[in-house]
Task: structure prediction
Amino acid sequence: MIASNKTIGMDVKALLSTLWIFVLFNMIFRDLHEFGRPGFLEEIMTGIVNGVQITEELMLLGGIMAEVPISMVLLSRVLKYRVNRWANIMVGAITIAFVINNGVKDLDDIFFAAIEIVALALIVWCAWKWRKQ
Result:
């Protein structure tokens, strides 16, 4: 399917970058969607969310986790073939682990996590099948 470096008329770099954007939108909306959960804002104001103390270190870790897919939007476009391919495979797999490890608390979390995992698996699969012309 990707043997010719084109998928439905799209360059593989463009496809990977677009998939990372799709993953990011789902991650952002999943986080924003939590604000509608009753009691969530109160939890944030106390500094303890789902029984976890929110610390500067935890916020830094969350920032790093968010920056990885943000960076992949750009890196998927600018990296050379070999590094690009392996970066997408490894970062995609690591991000799947983060999504799974983040846990699901309710049905909407399951919904968004499933979409994110499918899109990330597609990133890994496309990068794995990508062959240099």
